Amino acid sequence: MKLAYCIEGFYNRGGMERILSVCANMLCDTYDITIIIANQKQKPLVFKLHDTIQIVELGVPDTDRKKNYKKLLSAYLVDHHQDIVISLAGLDMYFLPQIQDGSRKIMWFHFAFDVSKMIWSEHYSGIKFWIIYYLQTWKRIYYARKFDKIVVLSKSDEIIWKKYCRQTISINNPITIDSCLISSCEIKRAIAVGRLTWEKGFDYLIDAWKLVNQKYKDWVLDIYGEGDEREVLQHRIDSLGLRDVIHLCGNSSHIEKEYASHSVFIMSSRSEGFPLALIEASACGLPLVSFACNQGVSEIIQDGYNGFLVSQVGDIRGLSDFICELIEDEKLRKRIAAHSLESSNRYRLDKIKAKWIKLFHQICPD
Fold first, then answer.
1. Which residues form the Glycosyl transferase family domain (predicted)?
2. Residue 158 and residue 109 in contact, taking contact as beta carbons nearer than 8 Å
3. pLDDT in tens, 72-105
């Protein structure tokens, strides 16, 4: 069976790109896999792919992008038959089902159902915000209905999507690190991982750590990732006098080693789909603290069992209180860490692979 994934670019070090690489690598011993890239912009592939995976770059120009993308993708798919074509819900989601190439079409949606709410709230307010939000949401639903299957990342998102698109199922992201070193949870360091962008909420985390630092001056926060907000975040750290206790560490090619050398994992995002960093940290035996920014996060963290959930996004005091609780009680920290490690088994690669194989053979039994 031949599978093709469509993505606009494979050069950003984001969760979607990482998950694509992991899933393609785990399935390439079972299927012939092609990754079709709209425009790589002469940049290297961000994650390593197995030698058997074929990479096709269409070279879609920036001008009249949608029209040219459809034309080039249509030509490729007609000339190179695929059994299943999977959209990662980029620009191609608006025309992929229209391409008459004989393949079954899947939309793989990596974001929370109401992601538009977070995106547009940054730019608009009042009635204008709600008009744009509803228009964008219904536009997505309209085009999603044309796919043979829609795959979302959490059970809660599946329930919402099924109200509009009955062909929706959920398949969780798998743990993406090859082998895990397990944290002792005895090192006075906390870790956060993600792109340095507004939606990841590191401004909230920095403000929360100011409160933590007032009580526990010997604890350090390391933030791994890169992004457009680096200078803004560094300025915030400096202005709060936290340069010695909060470090922007950049990207790491061995993130499991970083998890294992810390004792608490913190996520302060404004919005998430099904965050990779949470299940990675869980697999390395870290207790988790996060805002309950959507139901996907709440599916991973069982409040009080394998971590703590702060009910209100932006509740700096609530976030700092849970961090302090884990810092001051080592027995609690280690007990929750053990539960976190155990709960990560749900996201093992073999379990997620079996779900994808089942889906592919349901929609393309021959």
1. 190-337
2. no
3. 999 999 999 999 999 999 999 999 999 999 999 9
